[in-house]
């Protein structure tokens, strides 16, 4: 793990650098706001320890600029424990706030806690999105795109495609697809076949070949993995999502 320590006090920088290296961190340092932003860009740290009173720009502004294009965990440190400073730091995107003076062991523990929490959040964000070939599905918003082109699917169609994409290259039995898509509402293989046809049409997918939704008679369906860049022909971009009401599914 690499930590970026930002503080205008050179003695404190030396002490924190020594202590964090003993904890197993790789450490880079910055003594000013602009230097911190440069270090962030060049060294890509895993966590930032940022002093509120860092010279030039100040901690609040550095934090704000970091959050414009980075979600790196930030632990703000300050000799000012005032509630308004704590709240402002958190509102600007800091992940934790530690008041000076502090134990370096406690600082390292807080850094590790923030890193664990941010890793869990990142894993959760990754888990909600499934990618298969040029398909991308967000299970929280029920949004689907193919090659960056939005495709309007019904909730039922989305659930069918989501399960196939989650298991790309594997045959999913009819019963499992029906159970996942319909749940307690019931469904059957004939209805499933109709919805698979709708999904193929909206996405411009063939019934066979790389990237296809392939049927294995009497067994189930699979989403075939593209091979060596070979897959279905791309969708045509339009002003509305493919498959949206009053729009014909577009495939070329």
What topology emerges from the helices and strands here?
Blueprint: E1 2-6, H1 10-22, E2 26-30, H2 33-43, E3 47-51, H3 58-69, E4 74-78, H4 83-91, E5 96-99, H5 104-128, E6 129-132, E7 135-138, E8 143-146, E9 149-151, H6 155-166, E10 172-173, H7 174-182, H8 189-203, E11 213-216, E12 220-223
Parallel strand pairs: 1-2, 1-3, 3-4, 4-5
Antiparallel strand pairs: 6-7, 7-8, 8-9, 10-12, 11-12
Helix pairs in contact: 2-3, 6-7, 6-8
Plain-language structure description:
With 252 residues, the protein is α/β, with parallel strands linked by helices. The protein folds into two domains: 2-128, Rossmann fold, CATH 3.40.50; 133-223, Winged helix-like DNA-binding domain superfamily/Winged helix DNA-binding domain (Arc Repressor Mutant, subunit A), CATH 1.10.10.10. The chain is built from eight helices and twelve strands. The protein has helices spanning 10-22, 33-43, 58-69, 83-91, 104-128, 155-166, 174-182, 189-203; strands spanning 2-6, 26-30, 47-51, 74-78, 96-99, 129-132, 135-138, 143-146, 149-151, 172-173, 213-216, 220-223. The strands form three sheets. It has a five-stranded parallel β-sheet with strand order 2-1-3-4-5, sandwiched between helices. A four-stranded antiparallel β-sheet has the order 6-7-8-9.
